[in-house]
Model the fold of this input.
Amino acid sequence: MGKFTATDKARLDELISRYPTKKAALLPALWVAQEVYGGWLPLDAMEEVAVHLELPTADVQGVATFYTMYNKEPRGQHAIEICHNVSCMVLGAEQLIQHCERRLGVSATGETTTDGIFTLARVECLGACCNAPAVQVGGTYYENVSFERMDALLETLKTASSEVVNPPQAGLPEMKEL
Ligand code: FES
Done:
C-alpha cells in the first residue's frame, strides 16, 4: 500500500502544474517521494510516483537509479556527506573523511552506524568550494569544517531529531558556519 497522503498528492499536483508535461515533473516528484518514504526510495515509492505521473515504473526507476541524490538504501537519521572534490581535497577533505570514519566506525561509502544515527558518504562538489572543506547534512551546508568543528557537529546531531531531505523546490539549503 502506498504512503502518499492527500496532502502529498496535492503537493505533487502543484509541482506537475509548473511543467508542460507530467513526465517533466519527475525529478521534483522523486524528492517528495524520498521525503515521504523517510529519506530513500524503495520500489513502492517509485511505483507510487509512476502511478501519479502516469509513467511506466521502469522509466521512474531509470531516473531514480541514475542520480546519486536519490537514495536506493535506507539511511541513518543524519546523512553526513563530505565533498571530496579538488578544493575540498586540497583543504583536508580526505583527512576529514578518515577522521569521521574512525570516529563513527563506518566507511564513507554510504555505510550507516549500528545505532542507525549516522550515514557517512563522500560526495562530489557541493558548490561551496570557496569555503572548503564543505559538508552537507540533509538540507544544511557546513563550511570550513575542521576536525574540531566536525566533532562538535556530530555531538549536536547525536541528540537532534531526524533531518528530512531538503527538496530543491523548498528553497536553497541553509548555509552554516559551525
Ligand atoms: S570542491 Fe568541495 S564544494 Fe566544491
